[in-house]
Amino acid sequence: MRLLKEKLNLRLYQQTILNSAIEKNTLVVLPTGLGKTHIAIALAGLRLPQGKILIMAPTKPLVLQHSKVFSEFFLPKEEIGVVTGATKQEERADFLKSAKMIFATPQTIKHDVLAGKLSLKDFSLVVFDEAHRATGNYDYVFLAKEYIQNAGTPRILALTASPGSDADAINEICSNLFIEKTEARDREHPEVIQYVKPMTTEFRFVELPEELLNIKKHLENAIRLRFDELKRFELVGVSDIKRLNRKMLLAVQQNLQAKLALGDFSGARALSLIAALMKIGHAHGLLESESVSALKSYFENLWRDADLAKSKASKDIANDINMRVAYSLILSASEKGTEHPKLSALSEIIKRQFAENPKSKILVFSEYRDNIGKIISELEQISGTNVQKFIGQASKKEKGMSQKTQIEILDRFRSGEINVLVCTQVAEEGLDIPQVDLVIFYSPIPSVIRTVQRRGRTGRQHVGKLAVLITKNSRDEGYFWAARKKEQAMNVLISNMPDISAQKKIEHAREEVDLDKFIPKEEKPVEKVMIFADSREQGPIVENLFSIGANVKVGALKAGDFILSEDVGVERKIISDFVTSLIDGRLFEQASKLKASFPKPLLILEGNFSEIFTSRNVNPSAIWGAFSSLALDWNLNILFSENPRQTAELLMTIAKREQLHLKKPLSSRIEQKPKNLIDMQQYFVEGLPAVGPTLARNLLKHFGSPKAIVNASLEELQKVEGVGEKKAEMIKKILEIGWKVDKT
Prior knowledge:
Blueprint: E1 2-3, H1 12-23, E2 26-29, H2 36-47, E3 52-56, H3 60-71, E4 74-75, E5 80-82, H4 89-98, E6 101-104, H5 106-114, E7 123-128, H6 139-150, E8 156-160, H7 167-176, E9 181-184, E10 199-206, H8 210-231, H9 246-261, H10 268-289, H11 292-307, H12 312-319, H13 321-336, H14 341-356, E11 362-365, H15 372-379, E12 387-390, H16 403-415, E13 420-423, E14 438-441, H17 448-455, E15 464-471, H18 475-495, H19 503-512, E16 530-534, H20 540-547, E17 551-555, E18 562-563, E19 568-574, H21 575-584, H22 586-597, E20 600-606, H23 620-632, E21 637-641, H24 644-661, H25 677-686, H26 693-703, H27 706-711, H28 714-717, H29 725-736
Parallel strand pairs: 2-8, 2-9, 3-6, 3-7, 5-6, 7-8, 10-15, 11-13, 11-14, 12-13, 14-15, 16-17, 19-20, 20-21
Antiparallel strand pairs: 1-4, 16-18, 18-19
């Protein structure tokens, strides 16, 4: 494979950044449209002689976009390809071996690494696009460490338009991706300013009409009354209601729930006040920033909850005179067609844009999905518009859009069939959104990363336009100023980002990869422990198991989350999920399946045990009752761990004991159906009742073939180690009694 150098013309700043990336693991921070991808292409061309190239991006559409761009610069194209979860296993295995350049999501690569189908040691370059994602448990973090530990000559290139405004968060990204050098340029940097397209920004301030201000007054009265009462409990650290926020309320709520679980009911009223404050606060935000339609829908839900007596807070709200008056005024405003002034301002801005350029493409971002319908109905009244919503893949009220539907809509948008997209957060990154002429924020957002990503959708090839709708004297203004302040802070950080010495961390990561070199050879286990993990458990536990030497097979398990031997199946629950599954009834259903499938069922409860009484509003006696039932009725052994790392170590310890010391293997029936004859025979015999891998092999060794087992008498079966009278009778019964279809 070779790079078509004649097609690639790098600007001076791109060449400067490339020189750094050749020598060190580099984080590149450049505004959208300034050619981060072309730097990656040039570096890939230089690193190809040393090994394969891997380019990762958060979503499949963005992966396909990168593949398309790279394919224009490399030959032969047959050695370039995309790997997705939909790729057939046989094709996938062959391609991973033969391809020189692979494009994939991190989820796909992580799955193949954990399954032992892909090793990162043969890659000379890994590109992490949208590198600001490399925090917490995101798959980039695991893959970067795995790559650094195993590759012979590793090189990492990380790309982002906005790393964030917090120095600690940026340092975390750099640490997780083993960054040694940062190359950052903001829009005002002298090296790039000549290439940055001008962008005009309009901040449209609107004022709520008297009718909506009257509703706002009653909502604020309801909030103030509850806040004044809450202050008497001396639980919140602020006396000014303007300084109260949701984060504070959640912290107080958790503390009160902990006391309640221990039998202290003195905070019960405060808990109800906090719940009501959060609900009314949300309504207040809808009124200030969204629409009367969205607010009306929310009030209808509140009243429905009150009628169903779902909570004391809901009933308290429905009985509040201020809330009742507010609801009446909302219904009156809705009947008269009174709406939030942002809707008319939005229509005006879009009309003006189409008057200037009838072929314009426009993106409208809305924070509240339930408001999109109202926005669309308003914009559809404008002549010449073809409006389409563009949302994520799931919500409580609607199914959402699949990636296939999203791609189809973007193709129609690109062709001009659709000229206005009303979007949620899904359009901010990870999708190949075409160049647009105007981006509109229906409401400002405090996140600088999201602000930069949204704005980056315009001003790529020509002058860009941005409009932000802001309600005066509302939270909008607070978000607006917060975002501006954060962006200024980010630009200062970008301008002064120091080079980072990651050499010690890289050396430490490489040392971790083979700690067993310190174990004397005679003490090393000959066999490697295998653990089956359910496909829903592809998180930090599986990563930790992999890192401590387990051979992890991920797939759909019929019972449990992990299988450690033919005898031991494990259900793992974090504290909050334990309580949730107790409420919705899943807990005992899962316990039943686990007990029926394994002689030694285990439950591992992970997290801070004291939080089990505060995660949900559940009577402590119900939780103790659940533990008693699991232990005494279902014979589940219950073990505890504080975090995923401890859980992994516990699983590994048990698996070693079962497989290496007690010689209890894993059943072949857990994996995909075997393909060779010997494994097929064992698979067949394991299908008999109470027959695991060990007994299946004992039967085959004794009788020589499955046919001989089927034809064996009761007495002959009982001669095999592990087969008693009852088990022999059950085997014969299964094999000999005629099969009848139950016609009922």
